């Protein structure tokens, strides 16, 4: 990673002509309000699922990352417009020096969210299976294993983000955009992880999640039945309390699966837009001209804000009444 030791002096007249997209206007204020609203709504979801953290750790983590995306949008665009309006060299230099850290956070989200969504989809798929199957794969269906799995994945995500951004070089510096490109590691093992293993893992997680989401939709009628359960009591779900826990009814489980799959398909839409329309125009200084890079990045970041806020609205309108966040093998669920 190369560092610029001297303070950069910005030519604001040139900047106003080079990237007028950052000239503040009323639209920026409205969009900033949307992002702030998305941040607040994500915080409300975090507060909701924090009460059953171990059972709902995946959705809790997803809400936390949604909140981070709203903050990143505020940092990347409304705050940049504010710096543009104030013509502050100091604030512009602070943004420039923080670019590597921001890239690291974004790389963490790019890895963590697809894996997290895959866990959520796999869990909902297992809800359509028998108690025996859910117990065999309890890593995805029981409180403590799910919590450990998510924590380990977050730890791996941090390592992935560090490896992905460790050798970044500032290829092009400008207030409008800063192009960061990774140089190859001299270590072949690390180079293979950075260039092949990490992108392949992310790329495979998306179609795997999509396939299991479709299978889950087809199997949703099997909730409470599974594949030839051996213990009928395990599938006779009632709305009664047993040892302080609540036996959840089948209709609530089905409704919760549909809600979480809706969350997933919003994520899938975001990923399709990224790989199909955004990545090819933003990765690399020669991928497109500066105006296109800025606008494609803006479209994608704001769509992330909209989808993040939409997740809360979907939850509030359709899923907030007795949504099931945990359906372990013994059919004792958490509402």
Low-confidence stretches: 1-5, 232-247
What is the name of the CATH topology?
Rhopdopsin 7-helix transmembrane proteins
Kindly report the spatial arrangement of strands forming the biggest sheet.
3-4-5
Mean pLDDT level: 75
Q: How much of the polypeptide forms β-strand, as a percent range?
A: under 5%
For the record, what CATH class applies?
Answer: Mainly Alpha
Number of strands: 5
Notes on the protein architecture:
The structure is a single chain. With 335 residues, the protein is mostly helical. The chain has a single domain (20-224, 246-319), classed as Rhodopsin 7-helix transmembrane proteins (Rhopdopsin 7-helix transmembrane proteins, Up-down Bundle), CATH 1.20.1070. It is 67% helix and 5% strand. The protein is built from eleven helices and five strands; from the N terminus they run H-H-H-H-H-H-H-H-E-E-H-E-E-H-H-E. The protein has helices at residues 12-18, 26-50, 57-76, 78-86, 89-97, 99-127, 131-136, 143-165, 188-219, 250-282, 290-319; strands at residues 168-172, 179-182, 241-242, 245-247, 332-333. Strands 3-4-5 form a three-stranded antiparallel sheet, with no helix packed on it. A two-stranded antiparallel sheet has the order 1-2. The longest helix is centred in the C-terminal third of the chain and has 33 residues, at 250-282. The protein is globular, with a radius of gyration of 23 Å. The termini are far apart. Residues 1-5 and 232-247 have low confidence and may be disordered. This is G-protein coupled receptors family 1 profile domain-containing protein.
């Amino acid at each position: 990673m190369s560092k610029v030791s001297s303070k950069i002096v910005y030519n604001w007249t040139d900047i106003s002509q080079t990237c007028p997209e950052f000239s503040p206007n009323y639209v920026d204020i409205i969009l900033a309000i949307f992002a702030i609203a998305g941040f607040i709504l994500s915080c409300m979801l975090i507060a909701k699922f924090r009460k059953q953290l171990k059972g709902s750790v995946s959705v809790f983590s997803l809400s936390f990352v949604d909140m981070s995306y709203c903050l990143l949008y505020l940092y990347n665009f409304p705050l940049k417009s504010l710096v543009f309006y104030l013509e502050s060299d100091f604030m512009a230099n602070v943004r420039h020096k923080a670019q590597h850290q921001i890239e690291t956070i974004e790389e963490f989200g790019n890895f963590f969210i697809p894996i997290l969504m895959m866990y959520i989809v796999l869990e909902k798929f297992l809800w359509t299976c028998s108690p025996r199957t859910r117990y065999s794969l309890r890593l995805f269906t029981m409180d403590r294993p799910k919590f450990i799995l998510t924590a380990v994945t977050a730890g791996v995500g941090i390592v992935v983000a560090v490896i992905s951004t460790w050798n970044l070089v500032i290829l092009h510096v400008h207030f409008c955009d800063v192009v960061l490109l990774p140089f190859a590691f001299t270590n072949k093992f690390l180079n293979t992880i950075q260039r092949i293993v990490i992108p392949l893992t992310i790329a495979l997680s998306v179609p795997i999640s999509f396939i299991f989401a479709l299978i889950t939709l087809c199997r949703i009628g099997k909730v409470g039945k599974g594949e030839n359960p051996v213990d009928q009591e395990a599938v006779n779900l009632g709305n009664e309390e047993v040892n302080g826990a609540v036996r959840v009814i089948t209709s609530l489980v089905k409704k919760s699966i549909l809600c979480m799959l809706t969350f997933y398909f919003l994520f899938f839409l975001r990923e399709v837009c990224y790989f199909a329309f955004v990545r090819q125009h933003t990765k690399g200084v020669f991928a497109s001209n500066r105006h296109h890079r800025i606008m494609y990045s803006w479209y994608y970041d704001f769509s992330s804000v909209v989808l993040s806020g939409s997740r809360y609205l979907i939850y509030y309108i359709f899923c907030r009444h007795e949504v099931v966040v945990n359906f372990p093998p013994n059919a004792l669920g958490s509402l």
